[in-house]
Amino acid sequence: MTSDAPLAAASLEACVSVQAADFDPGAETLALSAGRRDVGAVATFVGLVRADKGAAEASEISVMTLEHYPGMTERSLQAIVREAWERWSLQGVRVIHRFGPLVPGERIVFVGVASAHRGDAFAACEFIMDYLKTRAPFWKREDTPEGGRWVDARETDDAAAARWGSPKVQG
Amino acid sequence: MTSDAPLAAASLEACVSVQAADFDPGAETLALSAGRRDVGAVATFVGLVRADKGAAEASEISVMTLEHYPGMTERSLQAIVREAWERWSLQGVRVIHRFGPLVPGERIVFVGVASAHRGDAFAACEFIMDYLKTRAPFWKREDTPEGGRWVDARETDDAAAARWGSPKVQG
Amino acid sequence: MSVKVLYFASLRESLGYSHETLTLPPTIATLGDLRAHLARRGGVWEALGDGHNVRAAINQEMAGPDALVQPRDEIAFFPPVTGG
Amino acid sequence: MSVKVLYFASLRESLGYSHETLTLPPTIATLGDLRAHLARRGGVWEALGDGHNVRAAINQEMAGPDALVQPRDEIAFFPPVTGG
Lengths: 171, 171, 84, 84
Description:
A: alpha+beta, 4-stranded antiparallel sheet, 8 strands, 32% helix, globular, C: alpha+beta, Ubiquitin-like (UB roll), 26% strand
């Protein structure tokens, strides 16, 4: 797939995975440039479960459980990737998001973007994360020894998504 | 090392490598969060040699050779990392830059940043790349079947570095 | 008309179930109408009423209160998302 | 005073060598003075003169034309960097 080619629906589906299983960020990063001579930049992001929830919390979380909306999750991630593909000159995108129970230190999400130039790769990678945070139907529940609670949405995430301007992706 | 700890000189030296050998971006990415429960975000960048130099060129490059200034290269990369560490709340940084002859498809540079939050990780990773591009003493020479030439510095790289404001790192 | 309604996360937990099939009275034309209809059940269902931070999707696309509800739609209600 | 001077990349290639040890006349106080001194060699050395895009470092730190040159300094001249 070159940066000028339209993004086929099959490619869009292939580049998004929603799964309970862990993933290998190293293998995913390598796959974005493997066998290619036109990729100049690969930007990646890995999000992980943190134990430390700040001074306001009584104790560290023991388990974080991610609920999602099967079907809509994949569709929304594909829409986010399609929009990134339209906004920047990209050569490859990979998005993996896990669901189910995760313990601190475990990986939650991977976003990797390949492009000829670093500006496009960085911008698209950060854009996908910002939109994913505010548009993809995932919900986090944190359990501590004292009990569980659902994580509130953060205004800073809405602000981060808003700086990319008016989306075609609905939210 | 926590985000509140001062950055020891030994840590600064350990996180910068200038080498002829290839590196494993997957292993480097994993190392930034391995065994930790406080890292929420790992942003990485891999730069690679591209064969395609655009329509203005007669033919694809066969070899790109990176010359550098031993000693100053390490110092300048360490200064860039120190500045990133002062600007953002970071938990780990890794910079690897290769020198010597490289063929299209080969990796040139790795920058990885770990932080509690994605905003810091993305910003610091991009900052380090922008500063490295305009401050670290590396020079690229491209050889094609028709002959070789030194790559000109790009104004877009100066502009990318300038958007981070006045540096403490001299340039 | 009949629609399928799904609930997620804290909303699913407080309501006590994750989905239902509803036969709607003809007065319900929009997503906003449906939210008000469900909120009138009272008790925990008031969480779906006006002023509560509940998002919605129709057929797996985010939708606002003016979106039209059609027969056999899959309609979902959920709190603001917190993935990533 | 005596200083070590290094040349890199296209500058090294066009000058034909990578380093030299120079004994400087007492009139040379700054990096700008040294550049002008070297440019006066003529020919390929004019690449070091005013208006040419050459950067410099003293003891492995970037330095401008007003920076003072001290005995035993390591001074480097090179084109704008192109790494990454």
